[in-house]
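User: I've been trying to design a sequence by hand for this structure and keep getting stuck. Would you show me what you'd pick, starting by listing the structure so we're on the same page?

Assistant: Good idea, let's start from the same input. This is the structure you sent:
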């Protein structure tokens, strides 16, 4: 599939992108190449291939779930303008 200059201008307009006229031919070539690659990938036989979340078959390293900071809630609420029942009170901004 090869995109024309008018198609590239239309795509740029829909995407709200500013494209210089001298760059349109390059964009048409690049976008056409991407579309051709997607067409080739769509033509491949993928029967029997399981979907993967990531191409690297590795397990995530997890860290221990431990507290690393002290509780400063009382200190922070002591300097807050308004607090009630442990909650910060803020002015109503939406009716």
């Amino acid at each position: 599939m090869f995109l024309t200059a008018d198609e590239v201008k239309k795509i740029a307009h829909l995407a709200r992108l500013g494209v210089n006229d001298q760059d349109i031919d390059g964009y048409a070539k690049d976008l056409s190449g991407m579309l051709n690659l997607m067409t080739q990938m769509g033509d491949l036989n993928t029967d029997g291939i399981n979907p993967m979340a990531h191409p690297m078959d590795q397990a995530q390293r997890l860290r221990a779930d431990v507290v690393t900071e002290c509780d400063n809630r009382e200190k922070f609420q002591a300097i807050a303008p308004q607090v009630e029942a442990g909650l910060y009170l803020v002015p109503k901004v939406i009716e």
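That's my pick for every position. To get oriented when you compare it with your attempt: The two ends are 53 Å apart (CA to CA). The chain has a mean pLDDT of 91.
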